[in-house]
From TrEMBL:
CDD domains: alpha_hydroxyacid_oxid_FMN (cd02809). Its cofactor is FMN. Glyoxylate binds at Y133, R168, H247, R250. Belongs to the FMN-dependent alpha-hydroxy acid dehydrogenase family. It comes from the Bacteria. It holds the Pfam family FMN_dh. This is 4-hydroxymandelate oxidase.
Amino acid sequence: MLTLDEAGLNLADVAAEARRRLEPAHWDFFAGGAGGERTVRANEAAYTRRWVVPRVLRGTGERDLRICLLGEPVSMPVLVAPTAFHRLAHPDGEVATARAAAEAGTVMVVSMAATRGVEEIAAAGGRLWFQLYPQPDLEFTAAVVRRAEAAGCRALVVTVDSPVFGRRERDLRHGFVDLPPGLACENMRDTDGRVRTIEMDAGLGWERIAWLRGITSLPILLKGVLHPADARLAVAHGVDGLLVSNHGGRQLDGALATLDALPGIVAAVGGRLPVLVDGGVRRGTDVLVALALGATAVLVGRPVLWGLAVGGAAGVRHVLDLLRADLDRALALAGAARPADLGPDLVAGPDLVA
Ligand code: FNR
């Protein structure tokens, strides 16, 4: 059990406790972003510029937070975003995160930069999707996809916002360039057991998405789409879902806040694909606003790492439980019984008319 101090009443409390526990270089690796971190700040700030316009006397009764994603039920519209290096936060690493996500009945997206092997993570139970940085070596990329399939992952989340590495100044100041000895990106192991370095592929284009489509029958989601024209191209290329993301502000500093990008993507997709969003989601009302503006679900990145640092699986569970309870209360107070009841008329803010 977590003590009340550890657990915290909200995600900012959990972050403060995580900061006390983590080595400064590791806290900064989790918290930081690219360049001047404008986009890191903008993601959270975008939510503070939206206001909920609640309905009353709707007699909503018990709320039902369940959604259906890629044909499968999920207990709430909050998923675990793929983040690297969970063993920096807790010795159990991604295994603990997976256990918590399974208990919460939601999806965990396993990062290609996970510090536990996908098989071990899958053994913790629950539903996993696998995040892929397509590698210039196609044969190796295909081997990683086969490994994720064999471990039981139910979808591929292809990160497309990273043709090169973002420049994260906090990491440079700490000289944090690699994992400490004993930790490795376990899903980058070659057949000979050597761990390959993750490469970003500046040559990545739509033909690679078509290639991936040809080597796997798993649903493919693209992560890192902000431009409506790319959303239309994604539909044309037969992908199965989009994740509106700027990588938590860790790649292109100055990229649009994801909540600001969301309505344009939703309009471009026109209901043909599920549209997910991540970046800066910290409260139940944030989830409500994203769903009202057309997201099917949101993902959380840093809050999960904070929970993991504070209490392993119990800490992650606490973060997910806080978001679930907060969303449930927000729905009730806004006069909605379920995510499907939410629409843009419930949100006011810049450029949005209630
Ligand atoms: C990330 N993110 C990320 N994304 C990805 O596709 N592959 C990865 O390996 C990682 N690694 C990673 C590490 C850390 C420390 C962070 C904070 C983020 C991005 C992540 O999936 C997600 O887009 C953001 O974290 C969402 O923003 P919030 O919830 O952290 O504000």
